[in-house]
Amino acid sequence: MTELRTDEEQVEMLKKWWSENGKSLLLSVIVVAGGWFGWNTWHANQQASGEAASYLFSQLAEKAAQPAAQQTEADRAEMQALAEQLKKDYSSTTYAQFGSLFIARFAADAGNFDAAADELKALIATADEGPVKFTAQARLANILIQLEKFDDALALVSTIPADAYAPQFEEAKGDALFRKGELSEARAAYVRAQEAAQNLGLNTQTLQRKIDNLAAAGDA
Description:
The chain is mostly helical. It has a domain at 7-156: Serine Threonine Protein Phosphatase 5, Tetratricopeptide repeat, CATH 1.25.40. It has 10 helices and 2 strands; from the N terminus they run H-E-E-H-H-H-H-H-H-H-H-H. It has a two-stranded antiparallel ribbon.
């Protein structure tokens, strides 16, 4: 699957999106943690339920940030329960959407890509335009690539919602096109992803490897 950005890189992408769009959102940042994504919690004048949801989310994110090799079955069961509790008990908060993102991640980690896709589709259908929805779109595109639904994945990332998401969307395009055997188009998408990442000050080593591998294949 497409390798995701580091915590710092995702923070910068979201800051960029915020500055360009100027929308008031119920979150300040979504960041990558443990191979899928992580968090940078926000605290304001919360109601009691919001504070409880924040506490549950911080527990979940802390556990999910641990290396997978160090997580026990009990840890994974607890994380699943926390994510489902956020989704069920705090459905009116953004934390419930975070819970859905985690549930999709856990399903994908277990190789249950169909369940992960269903969770992300439901989230995209209900989420407002903004970081949660855009993140879910990028994640779903990666899942659909695993399911070999390449055209569906391409449709999800056909339009870049904001410059901050160009690296993720273009890289997903490249992965889908590569799997379809459209190598020159895949390389072009990777190059666009790399340029967008460089403009955001993000690490581009993974993208460079993909570009180099396609160049080598073309030479062969």
